[in-house]
Structure formats: structure tokens, C-alpha cells
Specification:
The complex is a heterodimer.
Chain A lengths: L1 H21 L14 H15 L11 H14 L3 H15 L10 H19 L13 H14 L16 H19 L4 H11 L9 E3 L4 E3 L8 H30 L7 H28 L18 H7 L1 H17 L4 H12 L4 H28 L11 E3 L7 H4 L1 E3 L10 H19 L6 H12 L13 H26 L2 H11 L5 H16 L7 H14 L7 H6 E5 L8 H4 E5 L11 H31 L3 H9 L2 H50 L3 H18 L7 H40 L14 H36 L6 H10 L4 H5 L4
Antiparallel strand pairs in A: 1-2, 3-4, 5-6
Helix pairs in contact in A: 1-2, 3-4, 3-5, 8-9, 8-10, 9-10, 9-11, 9-12, 10-14, 13-14, 14-16, 14-18, 16-18, 17-18, 20-21, 24-26, 24-27, 24-28, 25-28, 26-27, 26-29, 26-30, 28-29
Chain B lengths: L2 H20 L6 H13 L3 H17 L10
The chains are: A mainly alpha, B mainly alpha.
Chain lengths: 841, 71
């Protein structure tokens, strides 16, 4: 078979040579010429020698690439119609397969190409082969043709150059010298450099251009002889390679460290977006590489080609990818240490750029990067779920007890807050999710899901994943606003209707703040004596019994059973020497979820107010009791009759003193009571009611309640600034209670006296020994006189003390900041009685 | 050769000839067919071109032969 082939080959070659030599298109008669036999033999031998030298072709056997280059050449020569028909023919040619077709199509094409080029070249003069190697085919051909035409009449005589006096010859010489110079300098050809640069731009070391770790860049080592301009250009182009390395390094690092959970979902999104950009970049590089291969370098020296892709062309192509790659490298640098929302925020800052290319690029990156964040927001706002394994979200949760879920369960993590989400929006987002969780955990409510779906429908997005993206911050705001509105409303509805928040507030006002007057009266009446005992002897069960009976006998019995159950007696921490009065207090039991509003500290505040009000009530009660005793009645009037003159006048004086003092004290206490009840409590309550009506969400409600409490505390002299005043007030109260004691004693004495004297008149029989009645009337009078004198003195002391204390109190009152206390002063001193007493004020 | 293969071969040759005309190689149909056959047998096309060029040179260098007596 081999021999057969060989013989066939030889025959064919012979045939070929014969044909070629006999073919002469310039022959006038166009007849087949018979060649010289010697010529024929020579040629044949030469042919065989060449063909058996087993030269391998210098190009890859790619028929398509060759066809492309032929087409391009035809097109650049301006023969575009020919190019089209060639393309057509080639398509048909290439589609012929099977028996009888040509197997090595590429060989045929290559053959045709070289032959046609050779012909063109041989039609030009010989010198054009020595032209600049880097010029394009165009220039060469044009130059060759023009030179050809110009030299048409010159003729060549055995290759001897005829030097003539025309400038073109000089140019020729100059060109030749230059070509020699370039050949000297260029150890490395441009195509190879271009290919190396293309490799460098993918991060791979080429034959000559390698990555130098010391210089941190791709360099052409010094030992290769390359002109300096080329070196600089290579350096510039390899910047792209350096940037590419950086970006790719970041991506691989992130992907590696993903299992260790240092890179969060946002980081992964960034990596994915960068990888997409890099694949675009690879596409560009692939196109450039095919360009670089084309046109193909040829073996035949007479047909040189300029490479389509020179370093300069490459630098033009690289302009846009360079910009993008630089952006990506900058991003990679800033985002290496950031995570989550902070990363999104910093990328957003980069996107604030005037250049539309940069802006668009950053925007598309951001859209990808923010999608996990937005997803988290959406889930939080519509479902209250925080799925944040890598802690990238700007809301963090802390496990707390149910009571403090609202206040402390969730908070904003401002580091992770991206800059395109403003603070108010973030607050609203936090509150909405908190409300959902609150409803779910504390209120056992399921209705929020409907509210959420409604909100989503209203905002135009769905409750599915991935319906929001960056650049749609408006849509996000819309969604959040809708969700917030609905969920807040729902929460407030639940608070008001299911948990009867308002009713509870009212109940606290009535019981803890002593608003239910008749109940307080009964309570005071029943446990009054009980509380005068030392604290450790009082049992809270007994007190609870009293409480119950007080409730039953007042209007409070018509109240809601649930509310009444919550009112309890609370004995505070006792120290020795305390009376019941000091440790008694009522408390209200608020359960979840109401204890979000009525926390421990809030209840402590209420207790303080209760204590104060209770004391005030006690004093009032005491004074009223005193009045009851001091009513003019027959006993006292009788004593007027029976007693002697001196004693009588003394009695009158004492009584009068007593009455006057009582009046003063009563005036003070009544006005204070009035002030507290109406100007402080009721006013604050109505303000609070209004605010409750207009509250939009639980935060508002909490704030309103705090304001309510604070205003009560401030106005009723319990605040920090009123401390000295508060102390003097208590001293006053003590004084009043002492007075009451005195009054009781006085009247007891009077009754005793009365009884004695009436007894004396009624019965003249013998009295039991030891009583002073038996001493007779004189002794009685004397005793009475002494007694009354003592009383009078003590009452006088009390009166003096009272006046001085009141003066102190009143003097401190105007100093207070709160404007309402001025009203108290006005009430207490509306006749300016006190200020007149002390005109120095 | 069956008629199908013959037809394919003829068409391929025709197409190659037309391509060669577009490229202005100056080869005629017969020469081209020989060249194609040689390429198909696996010879290096560059070598073949050298042969062609050589012969062309020889042709252009030698004066147009007078109609001599055929051998």
C-alpha cells in the first residue's frame, strides 16, 4: 500500500511538473507548449527532493481559520464582493463530505492562499520583500504596486540595482537600514509578545512575560532585548493582569473561607457578581486570541504578513476592561474586611460616581449584592423572622424574657446598616418586625399574618422571595410603610380590645391612684386602726379581707371581676419600728403582655405615688375625724352651763384655738388634696387619654404612658427637684396627725369633765374611791383648769410649729420650676394671708 | 467509484477551481486537480507551493519557447 501510494505520488508529481512547465498564459497562440526535457527532469528532481524533505507545515491544520484569513484579506483589499462569493464557495466546499471528497481541505485552502500571495508578490519587484516587517499588507501592496508602476520601464538586469538620482531610492536605502536595525533589536517578535500579554491578562505566566513577586507585577525580564517603547507598553498592558490577579485572588479566598463562615451571604453574592464580570472578560480575551492567531505567520519568506493584533491595538482594546477591572480591584480592597450591610453600604458609596459607565457597573453589582439583604428585610418586615447566620443584618436579637421583649429584645446594629437605608426607615423596619414577634410571642395572636399579606399586596410586591432589588429603595420604603401601618394598627387593636389596655390603665388610676373615692373611704375606715399597730403584727390576709369588704361595699363592686382580681394588698419591706401605715400599699398585677408597659420600675413609681396619696388621705381622714368630734353638740354645750366662769373662759379659749387651727389645717389639706386630684391626676389622665387615642404604635403608647407618669410625679412634688419641699410636707403631715391626737385628748377630757360634773349633779352618793370626782367640785374645777391649760399650751405649740412649717413650705413653693405648682400656691394663699404675715417675702 | 462519489469529487473540484480563480492563483483545472490529489495524499502544501513557485520562476525566466517540435 505504501509503495502504491509512493508510486502514485511520483506519477502525480511528474504530471504536475509537466503541466506547470507547459502552461504559459502569456503565449500568444495559447497552445500547449512542450517544455524542455532537461528543464523537465531538473524540475522533477527538485520537486521530489523538496517533497521528500518532510517539512511540516508551520500552521495548525484549521481550514476555517485559513478561510477566515483569506476572506479578510480579500475584504481589506477592497474586493468585498469577491470575499462574499469566496465565503459562499467555501461553505459549499466545506460541506462536501463522504466518498470522493477531499479530506485535507485545509491543505487545499492553504495551498491556494500561498500560491495567490506568491503570485502577487512575484508580480511586484523583488525589493518589496525587504520592506518593514511590521507594516500591514495594505501598505506593502500599495507601496509595491506603486513602485512597480513607477519602475515599470526600468527593468532589472540580473539583480543589479541601478542607482538613479531620485529620492525614492534614498528612501529605499533608509528603509533597508532601518529594517536591519529593527531585526537586530527585536529578539522577540511582536506576535509572541502579544500572546504573552494575553496570557498575563489571565494570570498565567507567558514565555517571556512573567509575574515578579518582588516587584508585584508582570515584567519582561531585562535579559531579553526589546526596544524600550515595547517594554513600556508591555508593562502598561500587564497592569490589567495584575488587577485580574487581585480580583481572582479575592474570589478564590472567599470561596475557600466560606465553610468557616467568615464570608456572609452578601460576600458570596459579591463573588458571584465578580465572577460573572470575569467571564465577560474571558470572552473578550478569547476573541482577542483568535485575532492574534490571524493572519497566520507564513513559512515562505516572500510573503510576509503584518500581524493584525499588535501591542498598540491591544492597548486600545484593553481600555474598557481596564476601567472595569480597576473598579473591581478597588471594590475588592475595600470589601475585604467588611461584611453584610457594611459591605453593601461601602459599595453604594462607590456607586456615587459621575461617570455613567462606572455608575451602571456599580449599580448592576449592587443589585446582586443587596439581594440577600433585601430578602432579609422583607422577611423581617412581613414575617418577623430573622434568618441571619452570618450576622450581616442590621437588626440583632437578644434572648430576653417575655416582659422585656419589646424594650430590649431587638436592637439596631448601626455598623451593618447600609447607607442607602436611612435611620427613620431602619427604625420603622425594626419596629414592624418587633411588633410581629411581640404579637406572636406575648399576645398569642395569629392575625398578623393577614395584615402582612395585605400589606404586601398593597405595596405591590409579593410575599415570595426575591421580589425586591437594589435601586428600588422606594419600593422597599413603600413595603415597609404599608407593613408598619397595618401591623401597628393590628397590634394596637389587640392591645385595646383583647387585653383591654385602656381599662387597665383606668383601673390603676382608680385603685392605685385612689380615684375611686368611696372605695378609699371604706378602706380607710376599716383598716385605719389596724394599720396603727406595729408592722410585724399585721397579717396581710386580714388586710386582704378588709380590701375585699371595702370593694364590696363601694361602687367598685360593679367593676370587671378580672380587674378586681388584680388589685392586691402588698406589704412592703419593713424595718423595725414601722407602723402599718408605713408599709401598706396596694398593687396591681399586670400580666404579659401588659407588663411591657407596666414594668417593674413603672410599678415602683406607681407605688411611690400611692404612698404619697395614701398619706395625704390619711391626714385628710384624720382631720375629718377631728371635725366630727369638734362639732358643737350637747355635751360641750352642757359643759358651758356647768362649769365655773374661769374654767369656762379657758375652755372657750382652748376650744377656739382648736377650731382656728383646725380650720387652717383643713384649708391646707383640702386645697392640697384638690390640687393633687384635679389639677394633677385628672389633667394628666385626660392628656394621656388623648395621646392613647392618637397613638400609632406601641412605642408611642409607651412614650405617652411615661410622660403621664412623669408629669404626675413632677407635679405632685415627688420629683428630684422637689425633695426639700417633700420633706417639709411630711413634717406638716406629722404635725397634723399630732394635732388630731391632741384634739382627741382634749375632747376626751371635756367629756370626762362633763361626765364627772353631770355625775356629780346626778348622784350625790358615794363614788368609788380613787377617782378624783369625789374630791368635790372645786377639785374638779381645778383639775379642769389645769387640764385645759395644758391643752391650750400644747395646742399653742402645735399652732406655732404649724405656722412656721407652713411658711417654709410656702416660701419654697414658688421656687419650683413647674408651672402648675404656682397654681397650688395660689390656692393656698389666694387671700394672700400668708404672704401678708411675712411681708419680707 | 460510484456515481455519487464521482459527483462529489467533480463538485469539489469545481468549487476549488472557482476559489482559485477568485484568489487569482493562475492555476488551471487540471493542475489544480493534481495538486488536490497530492494534498489529499498527505503531502505538505508548503512544499507543493515551493514547487509551483519554482516552476513558475523557471517559466518566467526562460524565454517563451518557440513552437518546437514536440517530443
Amino acid at each position: 500500500m505504501e509503495d502504491d501510494d509512493q508510486q502514485k505520488t511520483l506519477d502525480l508529481v511528474k504530471e504536475l511538473v509537466h503541466r506547470l512547465l507547459s502552461h504559459n498564459p502569456t503565449a500568444p497562440n495559447n497552445a500547449a507548449q512542450n517544455p524542455n526535457p532537461t528543464d523537465l527532469n531538473n524540475s522533477f528532481r527538485y520537486a521530489v527532493r523538496i517533497l521528500s524533505s518532510k517539512l511540516t507545515p508551520s500552521i495548525a491544520p484549521d481550514a476555517d481559520a485559513i478561510a477566515e484569513s483569506i476572506k479578510r484579506r480579500l475584504a481589506t483589499q477592497g474586493k468585498s464582493s469577491k470575499a462574499l462569493s469566496f465565503a459562499d464557495l467555501y461553505n459549499k466546499f466545506a460541506s462536501k463530505t463522504g466518498a470522493g471528497s477531499i479530506n485535507n481541505k485545509w491543505a487545499v485552502l492553504y495551498l491556494l492562499k500561498i500560491v495567490s500571495e506568491d503570485r502577487k508578490v512575484s508580480q511586484a519587484s523583488q525589493n518589496s520583500a525587504l520592506l518593514l516587517p511590521n507594516l500591514t499588507l495594505d501598505d506593502r501592496e500599495i507601496g509595491g504596486d506603486s513602485r512597480n508602476s513607477r519602475r515599470g520601464d526600468k527593468g532589472w538586469e540580473n539583480g543589479v540595482l541601478v542607482v538613479a538620482k531620485d529620492p525614492e531610492n534614498l528612501r529605499e536605502i533608509a528603509f533597508r537600514e532601518f529594517v536591519d536595525l529593527i531585526k537586530e533589536e527585536n529578539e522577540v517578535s511582536e506576535e509572541v509578545l502579544v500572546r504573552d500579554v494575553l496570557y498575563a491578562c489571565q494570570g498565567i505566566d507567558g514565555k517571556y512575560v512573567k509575574f515578579d513577586a518582588d516587584l508585584d507585577g508582570y515584567v519582561l525580564p531585562e535579559n531579553f532585548k526589546v526596544p524600550r517603547s515595547t517594554r513600556t507598553m508591555v508593562r502598561k498592558l500587564c497592569e490589567l493582569g495584575w488587577l485580574f490577579r487581585k480580583v481572582r485572588g479575592y474570589i478564590t479566598d472567599s470561596l475557600d473561607s466560606f465553610p468557616t463562615a467568615e464570608v456572609g451571604t452578601v460576600g458570596q453574592a459579591l463573588c458571584a457578581a465578580l465572577q460573572d464580570e470575569l467571564s465577560e472578560y474571558y470572552k473578550l480575551l478569547a476573541v482577542l486570541e483568535t485575532q492574534a492567531m490571524n493572519p497566520i505567520p507564513l513559512v515562505s519568506r516572500s510573503a510576509t504578513s503584518g500581524n493584525y493584533l499588535s501591542l498598540r491595538r491591544l492597548s486600545v482594546w484593553f481600555v474598557e476592561p481596564m476601567v472595569k477591572m480597576r473598579l473591581m480591584a478597588v471594590l475588592v480592597d475595600t470589601c475585604k474586611v467588611l461584611k453584610g450591610g457594611a459591605m453593601a453600604g461601602s459599595i453604594h458609596l462607590h456607586a456615587q460616581h459621575g461617570d455613567p459607565l462606572v455608575h451602571e457597573f456599580m449599580k448592576s453589582l449592587l443589585r446582586r449584592v443587596c439581594s440577600p439583604l433585601f430578602e432579609m428585610v422583607r422577611r423581617w418586615v412581613l414575617e418577623g423572622e430573622l434568618e441571619d447566620i452570618f450576622s450581616e443584618f442590621f437588626i440583632v436579637s437578644e434572648t430576653k424574657a417575655k416582659e422585656s421583649l419589646w424594650r430590649e429584645g431587638y436592637r439596631l446594629h448601626s455598623m451593618m446598616l447600609p447607607s442607602f437605608i436611612s435611620q427613620p426607615l431602619a427604625q420603622r423596619i425594626l419596629r414592624t418586625g418587633k411588633s410581629i414577634n411581640f404579637l406572636r410571642v406575648c399576645c398569642d395572636d395569629r392575625g398578623w399574618a393577614d395584615a402582612a399579606t395585605e400589606a404586601a399586596a398593597a405595596a405591590g410586591t409579593s410575599t415570595r422571595r426575591g421580589s425586591l432589588g437594589y435601586g428600588e429603595t422606594d419600593a422597599l420604603e413603600n413595603l415597609v410603610a404599608e407593613a408598619a401601618k397595618r401591623i401597628d394598627k393590628h397590634l394596637l387593636d389587640v392591645m385595646y380590645s383583647r387585653y383591654k389596655f385602656k381599662e387597665h390603665c383606668l383601673a390603676i388610676k382608680r385603685y392605685l391612684l385612689l380615684g375611686q373615692g368611696d372605695f378609699v373611704q371604706y378602706l380607710m375606715d376599716s383598716i385605719g386602726e389596724e394599720l396603727s399597730e406595729p408592722a410585724n403584727t399585721i397579717s396581710s390576709f386580714k388586710l386582704a379581707g378588709f380590701l375585699e369588704s371595702a370593694i364590696r361595699s363601694s361602687n367598685a363592686q360593679y367593676d370587671d371581676r378580672d380587674i378586681l382580681d388584680r388589685v392586691r394588698v402588698n406589704m412592703m419591706v419593713q424595718s423595725t419600728g414601722d407602723r402599718g401605715w408605713d408599709v401598706f400599699s396596694l398593687e396591681y398585677d399586670a400580666s404579659v403582655p401588659l407588663n411591657t408597659v407596666f414594668t417593674e420600675s413603672v410599678m415602683a413609681e406607681y407605688r411611690r405615688i400611692f404612698n404619697f396619696l395614701w398619706k395625704l388621705r390619711r391626714v385628710e381622714h384624720a382631720l375629718i375625724g377631728a371635725w366630727k368630734t369638734m362639732k358643737p353638740n350637747c355635751i360641750t354645750s352642757n359643759s358651758f352651763v356647768k362649769l365655773q366662769g374661769a374654767v369656762k373662759s379657758q375652755l372657750l379659749v382652748t376650744l377656739r384655738q382648736c377650731q382656728v387651727l383646725w380650720n387652717e389645717m383643713n384649708h391646707f389639706v383640702t386645697n392640697l388634696q384638690y390640687y393633687i386630684m384635679f389639677e394633677v391626676l385628672e389633667v394628666s389622665w385626660s392628656n394621656f387619654s388623648d395621646e392613647m387615642e392618637s397613638a400609632k404604635d406601641l412605642d408611642d403608647l409607651l412614650a405617652a404612658h411615661e410622660k403621664y407618669l412623669n408629669s404626675i410625679v413632677e407635679k405632685s412634688l415627688l420629683g428630684e427637684r422637689s425633695r426639700p419641699l417633700y420633706k417639709s410636707l411630711f413634717v406638716l403631715f406629722d404635725l397634723i396627725l399630732r394635732y388630731r391626737g391632741q384634739v382627741d385628748r382634749l375632747y376626751e377630757g371635756i367629756y370626762e369633765l362633763q361626765r364627772k360634773s353631770s355625775k356629780q349633779t346626778a348622784k350625790k352618793t358615794s363614788e368609788p374611791p380613787g377617782s378624783w370626782i369625789g374630791e368635790g367640785r372645786k377639785a374638779l374645777t381645778q383639775r379642769a383648769g389645769e387640764f385645759l391649760q395644758n391643752m391650750g399650751k400644747e395646742l399653742g405649740a402645735i399652732a406655732k410649729e404649724y405656722t412656721s412649717l407652713l411658711e417654709v413650705f410656702l416660701s419654697e413653693l414658688p421656687v419650683q420650676q413647674h408651672i402648675d405648682l404656682k397654681f397650688l400656691l395660689f390656692r393656698l394663699d389666694f387671700t394672700e394671708f400668708y404672704s401678708q404675715l411675712h411681708p419680707t417675702k | 467509484m460510484d456515481p455519487e462519489a464521482a459527483k462529489t469529487a467533480r463538485e469539489s473540484l469545481e468549487l476549488s477551481f472557482q476559489m482559485s480563480n477568485i484568489l487569482d492563483t493562475g492555476l488551471d483545472r487540471h493542475t489544480l486537480s493534481v495538486l488536490i490529489a497530492l494534498c489529499d495524499l498527505g503531502l505538505n502544501p508548503e512544499a507543493l507551493t515551493v514547487v509551483v513557485k519554482n516552476c513558475a520562476q523557471k517559466l518566467s525566466s526562460s524565454p517563451p519557447p518557440t513552437p518546437a517540435s514536440s517530443s
